[in-house]
Amino acid sequence: MMIVASIVPNFLMGIITGAGIQGLMILGGGFFRLPNDLPEPFWKYPMYYIAFHKYAFQGLFKNEFQGQKYPSNVGRHKINGEYILREWWQVEMGYSKWINLAILFGMVVLYRVMFLAIIKGVEKAKPALRRFMSPDQKRMKQVMASLTATPLHEATLQYDQASLVIQNGYKFTQQAPDCYRSCGRLGEHFLIGFDA
Fold first, then answer.
1. pTM, 2 dp
2. Residues 20-46: pLDDT tens digits?
3. What is its main location (predicted)?
4. What are residue 96's phi and psi, to 5 degrees?
């Protein structure tokens, strides 16, 4: 879910997309339809093997049924738990429940690393995308901080559609109209006009 949240633009889309992915994984996890009954192209390969529900269900079933004997409806003999796992639940018996648990922990680590990579990638890509989409550099202006200021006390600001770049310690705050900004340092306040 964190990976989905890092990709989609807003909260609602994250919930919708995440719920859809979880639904697909639940359907392909081998509980609603047994593994041998899943259609091959999409549900069995790859959905059944990447769904974490498969490993959770199989680990749970192995924990509950392995080494147990259950009474049979026919005769006095008992049914072996391994038989139930193999024949009824179609659980893969080639490895233990601890392997299922290790796979689940591995998925947690893998998804966290994927989340970190996506966050760092988006962090690097957004400024480049903004530079690519921003208007040309004609909007760079130099503004004097006060009427008696020397060039050492001037502040450079770049007025693009959404943000201001502030230098030399000046603080710029937005005033009522969009085309005006206010600059202040050490109690001095005055308006600065921009051509929008």
1. 0.63
2. 999 999 999 988 999 999 998 888 889
3. membrane
4. -90, 175
